[in-house]
Amino acid sequence: MYTVTKYNNIKSSEVEAKIGIDEVFKIIKEGDSKLEFIKLARNYEKGSENYDSIKTSIIPTFRFNFLFEGKASNKNITEATGLIFIDIDNLDELPDSDFIYAKWKSISLTGYGVLVKVDGLTQNNFNNIYDEISKLLGVSSDSGARKPTQQTVQSFDPDIYINHDSRVYNCANSKKVPFPIKQKKEKGGLTTNDTFLLVPHINTNVRFNNIDNYFKDNDLHYLVFKEKKEGLCIPYIPKKVEKGNRNRCLFIYLSQIVALNPNINKAYIRVLAGSINLNVMNPQLEKIELSQVIDSIFRLKESNDLKMLYNKERRIIFNPIHKISFKEKMKIVNIELGNMTSERTKEKIYECIEEWDFQLNEKISQKKVASITELSLSTIKRYWSNFKDYAKDLNSDYMASRTTNRIKTSCKIEHSKFYIVSPRLKKSA
Length: 429
Description:
The protein is α+β, with helices and mostly antiparallel strands. Helix content is about 40%, strand content about 15%.
């Protein structure tokens, strides 16, 4: 029996309970007291304010990789659970594998949560094992979820798949991969011209993504998508593909290379297919199978039914013409993401002040803004200079209106007294 930890919501790191995995599966399959909130969240668009509010504040989460003492943090890890959680976004159908212990639709219904049994998982080998199992399953997993403390929001999937007899992945055979330089190439599979490096004589003047489309009419070094991540076509194939997934993986990869390069010919694709077959497929496909895959791709191309698959999302993309080092890219990414976070925070504070309910909350103050926005007081203080004068003006207007209302009320009372008392005085006179 595997045991995992449960939490109140995304924002909470306090261990609420230790719970058996079968009970978790039952909650996902049948639902519990939070089911109505999960259904409500699914009525909204993923990433919308209502969706995020429900997801982050109301619905519980689980951490499947390790057990913790008190709070979920690396320093509080007590032991491995014997499981590893793989987060997969933007995937309609997950390939079958004997290693899948359980899989279910995510709360957004746009991806999957997957559990695999593991032996020998540690903090030190976690990143590498996460990548190895992702390749083994033939999926492009969420690299942001590649951490020992990763949590996942409780979902609801009546069709959850569970295989108690699934194979166990032995972590002891893992090869440690340096991070980040070497791992940058190895972690996801063959997504750039790595495939062609295996065949020195082949022409490499081929597109491996559609990023250059964004820089045709400008000479910018990079672009930032602030509203939402941009979908990109970046063909992907695992570094090793086992029997059962070979034809499908080869078709998807080669079809996208053709979609990105409309003028590419069959001879070129045959050489590429041969390189992939030799270095990736286990065991290798027969030549007739390679020809069948290639022919089917070009039939789709001729009938104009071959489309790009936007399988990757990026917040920032870099112009391939400009040679920007990895270190410089990371510096740009950190600055831009920091700016976006700052802008979102300032927008949240502004909306709070703009829609201030003086009748309910009275004067605007930093503490009240922090409480309403659920931001820390230190965060409010950091940005308060942007709103200090505006809040002061609104408070002044509010205080002035209160003073005016008191004067009017006082006048009405005196006026009322005059007309009530004076007739009696006249009569007595």
